[in-house]
Amino acid sequence: QVQLAESGGGLVQAGGSLRLSCAASGRTFSSVAMGWFRQAPGKEREFVAGISPSGSSIYYADSVKGRFTISRENAKNMLSLQMNSLKPEDTAVYYCAAQRSLLPSRDEYLYDYWGQGTQVTVSS
Q1: CA–CA separation, 37 vs 33, rounded Å?
Q2: DSSP secondary-structure letter at 123?
Q3: What 8-state DSSP symbol labels residue 65?
Q4: 63 and 40 Cβ atoms separated by less than 8 Å
Q5: Which of 3, 1, 56 is CA-nearest to residue 25?
Q6: Average pLDDT estimate for 34-52
Q7: Is 26's pLDDT higher than 90?
Q8: Does 27 score more than 90 pLDDT?
Q9: Which of 13, 25, 54, 60 yields a CA-CA distance of 20 to 30 A from 75?
Q10: pLDDT at position 1, please?
Q11: Is the distance from CB of 57 to CB of 38 less than 8 angstroms?
C-alpha cells in the first residue's frame, strides 16, 4: 500500500516557476514507478512526466519537455516536479501516482495509487 500527498501548488504568473512535491508513505516507494498527471477543467487527465524506481528512466509529455523536471529521493519517500517557464495552458490540478512497475507508463489506468491533487494556476 502506498499513500500519496501532493503539495506546492498555487498561483503564479506566466513565465514563473513552481515546485510540486509528493510525499509517499509505505516501505515500497523505492520499488514503484512514479508519475505526474494533470487535469484541466473540461479536459481529460493527461500524463506529464514519469520516473522509474531507480530514477534511471524518465519520460516527459512533449508539452512540458525542456520546462519541467521530475525527480525522486527514495531515502525520503519524496517525488518532485520542478516547473519552469509556466504557461497559462499549464493550469490544472496536478496528481502524483504510483505504479507497481519498473517503468512508468503514460496510461493513467495502469497506475495503482493516486494522491488527491494540488491546484496550479498560471495567470497571463
Answers
A1: 13
A2: E
A3: T
A4: no
A5: 3
A6: 97
A7: no
A8: no
A9: 60
A10: 80
A11: no
